[in-house]
Design brief:
35% of the residues lie in helices and 24% in strands. It is an alpha/beta fold and 297 residues long. It has a single domain, classed as Ribonuclease Z/Hydroxyacylglutathione hydrolase-like (Metallo-beta-lactamase, Chain A, 4-Layer Sandwich). The chain starts with a helix and ends with a strand.
């Protein structure tokens, strides 16, 4: 009986492992997961064996939990990380992600400001030998073989290479300090946020980071913005983003808001929710629903 029980136990373990393996086999269709990271942003986009992480939230625990739930346990590679801006609610969680996963591409803009979180992240990137790259309007980011996922960069309009260089260890500390001082004098770093457009199958997704009214107005002036299926609402639903004019142009069917429950900023603002209601957008929020998973097809 002892041997039989051991055999049944081993067979059960093997069966359980096979079931887990099958459950974690990557799907060929793209998915967008708006991770529940509290008051911050972290969005995971997957397609087959490709993973793209846009921002990392305010702490590592929740973003790592999200990655663990939606990436196969044997896959330790993230093909692309996009840091839309250097606020801690977008950047803090990324340090541990870079330490635990192999990152192939890392892109950002030149909207940088100094903080202990930023200094630590720079050290982590250097240790992992991740080379930062700046992106600007007109660029296309290709991810995976034959560009399995493609992101069009809509903003910022231009990116200073010397500002992006502060993410690397290839410049002197004195240079880094001077650049960060100069960058801090800019009017609003939120309006240097990376804004991306993803066209996947029959679904269009607009990812706006913390961009506000000023960026939205500039994007409308450039023209060429399509109507959008999914909008990642700017700046966690701040009343200073997602204007009525902007919404009238892009007319999103679904608006997702990454926001913390009972946050001290009052996000999402009642004005923003009213504007989304007027345009007829369905609204989903991480503070009410937790993690949001969307099929992009």
């Amino acid at each position: 009986m002892g041997r039989k029980r051991l055999l049944y136990y081993l067979l059960g373990l093997c069966l359980g492992f096979l079931i887990l393996l099958v459950m974690q086999l990557p799907s060929g269709e793209a998915k967008m997961i708006v991770c529940d990271v509290g008051q911050g942003d972290a969005i995971l986009i997957t397609k087959g064996s490709i993973q793209v992480l846009i921002d990392g939230g305010p702490s590592s625990e929740k973003v790592l939990s999200c990655l663990g739930a939606h990436m196969p346990f044997w896959d330790r590679t993230i093909e692309l990380i996009v840091l839309t801006n250097t606020d801690s609610d977008h950047m803090s969680g990324l340090s541990n992600v870079v330490e635990r996963y192999h990152v192939i591409q890392f892109v950002t803009s030149d909207g940088v400001h100094d903080s202990s979180t930023f200094s630590h992240f720079v050290q982590v990137l250097a240790t992992a030998k991740v080379v930062p790259r700046g992106v600007e309007r007109g660029d296309t980011i290709y991810v995976g073989k034959q560009g399995k996922l493609r992101f069009q960069v809509l903003w910022p309009p231009d990116t200073r290479a010397d500002y992006v260089a502060v993410f690397s260890n290839q410049i002197r500390d004195s240079e880094r300090k001077q650049i960060l001082i100069e960058s801090a004098k800019r009017s609003d770093l939120n309006d240097r946020s990376v804004v991306l457009l993803l066209l996947e199958a029959h679904t269009s997704v607009l990812l706006t980071g913390d961009a506000g009214f000023q960026t939205e107005t500039a994007l409308l002036k450039t023209g060429g913005l399509p109507q959008i299926d999914v909008l990642k609402v700017g700046h966690h639903g701040s009343k200073y983003a997602t204007s009525q004019v902007f919404l009238a142009a892009i007319r999103p069917k679904l608006a997702v808001i990454s926001v913390g429950a009972k946050n001290t900023y009052g996000h999402p603002a009642p004005e923003t929710l009213e504007r989304l209601s007027k345009i007829g957008s369905k609204v989903e929020r991480t503070d009410q629903q937790g993690e949001i998973v969307l099929d992009l097809h």
